[in-house]
Amino acid sequence: MLKNYIKTAWRNLWKGRVFNSMNIVGLAVAVASSTLLLLTVYFEFSYDKFHKNVDNIYQFYTTINHTGVPEKNTAMAVPFARAVKADYPGIKNITRVASGGALVTYGDKQISKGILFADADFFRIFTFPVVEGNAGALTNLNDVVITRSAAKSIFGDQPAVGKSITLKYGEKPQPFLVAGIIDDMPANSSFETDIFVRFENVQGYQENLKHWDNQNHRVYALLSDNANPQSLESSFSPFIHKYFADQLKDLIRDGAKPVFNNDRISLNLVPFKGSHLNTDVSGIQGSPINKTYVIALLVIAVFILLIACINFINLAVARSFIRAREVGVRKTLGAGKWQLLTQFWTETLMICIVAFAIGIALAAFILPGFNAAFRSHISLNMLLQPMQLLSIAGIFIFITAAAGFYPAMLMMRYKTTQVLKGSVNTQKPGQVRNILLVVQFSIATILTICTLITWQQISYLQQKPLGYSKTEVISIPIGQSINGTEAVERFRNQATGQAGIVAVSGGYLNFGRGNDGSANRSILGFNYKGHEIRTHEQGIEYDYVKTLGLKLVAGRDFSKDYPADSNSVVINEKMAAQIDGGKDVVGKYLPMHDDKKPQQVIGIVQDYNFESLHDDIAPMSMEMTRQYAMQYVFVRLKSNNLQNDFKRVKALWNTTFPNTEFNGSWLDENTQRQYKSEQRLSTIFISAAIIAIVISCIGLLAISIMVIVQRTKEIGIRKVLGSSVANIVMLISKEFVRLVLLAAIIAFPIAWFTMHKWLEGFAYRITIHWWIFALATVIALVIAMLTISYQAIRAALANPVRSLKNE
């Protein structure tokens, strides 16, 4: 019996091969696209799940309400970890974590590597596979644990455990002993480093052991199995009053609002398991991404599958009119409902199997390009996981059932006598078809509108003036092999008089995200005349204002003619507004550091966007203090050929520092990297919109062919009675045009609400204009008309005698 079903199904599929090919192509493209998108969603949600105790790992953060908007920050003071573990027995293990970079020396070899300062409990909390040695201890202060790839690059094929290496991450190199080797960290790990060093080796550790106001690292805890994180959070109030007493007084004095239990500071725990998708708390480990982007991927994958299913159903319903007589004859010959249902499901099943096979093969083919475009790390091996296999089976069953059940039930309800007479009622199937087409084009229009708005916003972010010169300035990371301040001075001396080079300066912090991946910031708080002032802090060298093209609105820049400038500060307008209401600020002294004399304000620069445009401009203070080692050299160019000058700057750097890699980049490249999530979302929307429109057009083309086939006799009669080609094309097209317009009207409020919410994440954003919706509608109409018109014109030009004869 099964063999007979398959043979009959094959004959029917071959007979309708044109429409079935359209179904297979549309469904295969949808399967390929959705497979890649769903694997990406799975990958993003899988971050850090490989740790054995991940359900009990939490990160500490504080919440403070300075200005009505709660600030959540993970930065902690050095004595915090030991104090909180001593006071709360529910904390089983605890570790402090700080990131950095170091120059590694072994014999004659020198290599720059990333380092992570951590306590001995780190490897008791986080479980990375051990390759060799005692990676779980970090018992001694001079122990280090390195990754497999770091061991390979430093020692080659030689044994690494027990060997001594030298790390230079401060002013002086220090010797360390390799205690163990762990496997390289997987792509879905929030931690990314080469070498683990005991936290006690952080610069200034002993000094900071006495200070609770210097918060510069993260703290993670492994809770006991019986510990309740919510109960633990609610019991932190006495701890806050014990160790944050001075800060609480300052917050109460400055009018900060309570955040919990009438306290101005609350200590909280955030689960490590979901931290990769947590952008609400500042300072989460790794590079967290907005959960909205991952959900957008999931929704788009569902949309694409839904459009393909709608195509399948519409084509099956349309073909049901042609196969009505076949069903009538089968019923007359004694076929039962379940036999007919099984026959049609067999055909659907065969189409789905072929489409899924082609779809998976297509996904494998485009996977490398997908990973590159979306900066993903997925592989088709992920499909072999039990959860993925169940998901694929569920999707397959759903599509087969959705695409096969309704058309089969529809044909089985036809009355045999009416079918054989050729009087099938097509009103209800036509209504269902129209509803499905409206859903299809609504989704396509929503994706088109979202694409246009994200493209507009990204263009706005890239083109908006930031208040400094970003197109003519090169940022060069100095690295650990040379002293930063000396490097700036040496390179300035070498560059003086070189054609095209206008100015050279240095800074502790970069702009945007440079080639070294750094995106650090430093925030300082101090008391001034009875209230707290908070400001971003930047250590700089001479000519910084000139090099960056900043505009002085009052006072002057730092100058070598004034020796006292080493204890002075240049601030921006936002910072000046906090000082005596912004009046006569130049010349005033600010007690910015407890261990230094008050610093004099010598200049005010116009506000500039030193952070991304997600955030408003914040207060900024620039100092010449030597407590900040210069990390970057900034070079400003002015010529007609910036690319050639970039090459000459690189050659000059390599001549001046032959042992230090040139890793420079333009500041506009750095600032654009801040919006990689938005660029990724834009790429996703563009790709999804194109795929959705293509699949919709495949369905629309097939439906228009079926409609024309069903109306062949009507078209022939109208031509005989004198209708023109234009009239017939308009007759066939107007119904579809109405459906596309209705779909656009439905899509407008959904797309507006979605993108309005997304734009709220930017301090600087575009206005959503009406013409975006009009343009999306025109695009949908043009594509629909191009799809339909060819078949409509072909039908209108056909010989009416042949059409009537065939009928």
In brief:
Residues 22-234, 521-643 form the MacB-like periplasmic core domain. By secondary structure, the protein is of the alpha+beta class. 49% of the residues lie in helices and 17% in strands.
Overview of the molecule:
With 807 residues, this protein is an alpha+beta fold. Among the domains are: 93-202, no CATH class; 442-462 and 677-807, no CATH class; 479-659, no CATH class. 49% of the residues lie in helices and 17% in strands. The chain is built from 25 helices and 23 strands. The strands form three sheets. Strands 15, 16, 17, 18, 19, 20 and 21 form a seven-stranded mixed sheet that branches. Strands 4-5-10-7-9-8 form a six-stranded mixed beta barrel. Strands 14-22-13-23 form a four-stranded antiparallel sheet. A hairpin with a 2-residue loop joins strand 15 (523-528) and strand 16 (531-539). It is globular. The two termini are 36 Å apart. The relative contact order is 0.11. This is ABC transporter permease. Keywords: Cell membrane, Membrane, Transmembrane, Transmembrane helix. Residues 299-414, 687-797 form the ABC3 transporter permease C-terminal domain.
